[in-house]
Structures are given as C-alpha cells and as structure tokens.
What does this fold into?
Amino acid sequence: FLDIRQLNLDKPTESLNNYRDEILDLSYETGIATAKMSKGFYDVQSATGLFGEDVKDLASQVSDYAIATKADFNDSVNSTVKAMKAFGFGVDEVTNYLASNAKTVQVGITTFDELARVQTEFAGAAAGANQTFDTSNKLFAAFTAIAKDSTIAATLTKSALEGLTQKRTTDELKKMGVSLFDAKGQIRSLDDVIRELTPKLQGMSDIEFLKVRNAIGGPEGLQ
It folds into this structure.
C-alpha cells in the first residue's frame, strides 16, 4: 500500500486508511491476493487518475472477470486501463469491454491471458482508425484462425488497422463502390465496410482479386 500512499500525498491520512481497508475488504471478498489487489488499484490510478469508488468499481469488475475466466488479475487490469485510454471510455463501459473480450476468446483461437497481454499491441491503432474495442477484437479473433499464435495475430491486427486509412486503400475501395468514410467525413466501422465489401470480393475471379489486393498494397494484415 506504500506505493498508493506515495501516489496520494495530498490525501488526508484518515482517507487513505479507509482506502486501505476497502482494498483489503475487496481482496477478501474476491479472493484476489492483497498484494495483487493493491497493485491493481495503483495501476488504475496511475493510468487514469481515478481515485476512490471508481477505482474500486473497476477493480471489482475486473476481479470478477479474472476469476470467471482464470485470467491474471493484474494483466487484465493493465489491458483494461490501457484500452480505456486508447478508446476513451469510462468505468461505465468496462463491463461491455470485458464482455467483448469474453466473446473474442470464445470465437478466436486464444486464451484470456494471451488476449490480456497482446491487446495493447493493436488498441492504439484501432483508436487511430476510429474503430471500437469490439470491432478490433473481432478482427483479432479472425486473425487467430490463420496466425501461428496470438502475438502474430495481434501484429496482423495492428498492421491491418494502420493500413486501413492509407490513401491507396481508400482510393481502391472507392473504385469498388465502398466508402471508408461516412457523410460527416468520419471513418466508418470496419464491420460496415466489410459487410459491403464481401459480396463484391466473392464475385471476383482469383486474377481480379489479386489485382485489387496488389493495387491496395499496404502491410500484411491489411492484405
């Protein structure tokens, strides 16, 4: 708890003592080791600036998730707070984020521990391409079916998202009648783009498809 005290030198001693008791209580209620729970609280505040009930609420949600899925608690906290920063969502969206992770493991060839460790690899690229955590998780799950392992799948996901906004990509998609941008000039959900693109690709011969792929170019994940 010393690290948390040092992080909150501006807080009254009584407030910090009560905070310590809340950490101990939550550790007891969830069965998460006190040292791991304390580190989780510290990591949340360090990454987000949150303190008090918001941190407790987040830690409680992640601990329930970690216990149910047998994922490492601290890895799960770390991936959650990094996702919060990358995608700009708050504590009220943590449940949806964790549910998306659970679906990703159900559909993809990965584990909860692996997902927690590699998700940060593509979270920034997803946010940069205006994609949600749910959309990027779906893309990652798809790549786990063809990649050697989760790390490679995460790298492919990142490169696909980075290549999505390249001019060659948007130009070639436009030629096929698929716009990457909505009426307000914002990047559309990759879900919607793929739904429009799939029937067009399915009607192509192998030679036609290769021409399109070569014209788009870009990183391996995008191709």
